[in-house]
Known about the structure:
It is a single chain. The chain has 537 residues and is an alpha+beta fold. The protein is built from 15 helices and 25 strands. It is 30% helix and 23% strand. The strands form five sheets. The protein has a six-stranded mixed sheet, with helices on one face. It is globular. It starts with a strand and ends with a helix.
Amino acid sequence: MKREILISATQREVRVAILEDDQLVELQVDRPEARRMVGDIYWGRVEAVLPGLQAAFVDIGTDKSAFLHNSDLVYDEDDDDDADDEPEEPADVDQPDSVEAAAADAPVASSKPRGGRRRRKEPPQIQDVLKKGQEIIVQVSKEPISTKGPRVTAQVSMAGRFLVYMPFASRVGVSRKIGDRAERQRLRGQVESVMPKNSGGVIVRTVGEDVTQETFERELTTLISQWNRINKKTRFVGKPPKLLHRETSLTRGIIRDLFSTKVDRLTVDSRQLHNEIIEYLNGIAPELVDRVQLYEDKKGLFDHAGVETEIRDLFKRRCDLPSGGYLIIEPTEALVSVDVNSGRYTGKKDPEKTILRTNIEAAREVARQMRLRDVGGIIVADFIDMESRQNRDKVLQELRTHLGRDRARTKAFAVSDLGLIEMTRQRVRQSHLQSMTEPCQVCHGTGRVFTAETIVRRMERSVRRMAAEGRRDHLLVRLHPDTAMYVLEQEGDLMKKLEKGVGFGVEMRDDPLLRPDEFKLVVKGAGRDVTQQYAVA
């Protein structure tokens, strides 16, 4: 597979596009006013402990307190493990914000053995570990989303290029993406031999497969020193909340986490950023310097690569498939629904083959769109119904294969009795739709506005409500021009009938400053707006 990374930078924005076989599959955007938080380490203060939720709220200096669950606390593991058992290891160590991957390798609250491998101690109750006002080091694992504050973990991790260092863990793990058992044991042995005693835990990342023991030792020393500096800051930064460590920039994180021999080329359109990348690579991976190119053409880099159109389309509900079918993607508060439609593709003879082809295409595109739009949480896909169980399994396998390319943790469950495929995708920040758009001031995010006739009926009820209270002021009704035109064309005698029914003068005016589904009731003599008093529904 051909892989390419494009980086376009201006003073106010850095955009990173990841292409696979010349197709855009991932977009990341960094702006000063929307700084990325995942990976940042804070010196916080516990504001409240909630035994009923087994969670606590921690003040880290953000608008809303951070959420710390009991499963994200640090506590001792059971030492009575079978030495031949392999540790539970993260499936996605190589995602950009590796704090989440490292947390997956740390102990979690469970009274049962996970996967039949290692037994975990029953964790203590959160009220026995944390108290209100207690000071604690935490790391952001999920950014604020919607009405929720950030989520934090006490299981701090420090990401390097080849290793993830976890000061509060005690094991050496290897990324699951390294499948060979002998190679995993070799890598584990190399790291264990250079790991200082009682200094924490480590995960070997996928790109560390061919790294020498000396390189492991050098990076481990750097990460441990970095953690020691962070830990010492708690003694002199003053009272919490305080920021102790900020995660590396988007560009450097991409180079650290993604840029390897599996990437054919990295193109950047900023000379300053190009020089920074070259300098960084000379220190960690000089063999990759030749794959970095500076783009200097006047035409924009993303325009040249043909990805601007795809970026624009990722905000649309409809996504077309090559055969003529299409997807409808609808984000909601609880989940994201995806509906698959055959569209104009009708096939030739066999309807089952027609449906299978459409569903296979849809499975690939669903996986790509979830990754491209950075959608997280629960996703429900309604594929076209198929009679054959074998065909349903083919679609599910195609979906899982393409989800496997995603660096975020994803899981697709079996086809339900209703023909739905339920998925989950790790969410660490807002989707592009949430971060780059805002609710419409007219429809308030519903995508719907009242019809002109509905607005007129609401206005009519409001005027009659005034009359029922004994008001006899001459009234000026202000309507949006489109609604006023509806009255003139469809109900030309409305105002005369209304005046006769209420017993006072009612005059209509159009007002282009009003929203399409808005009206105003103004007492003409005093100029007083009385809309809120009488416009109930």
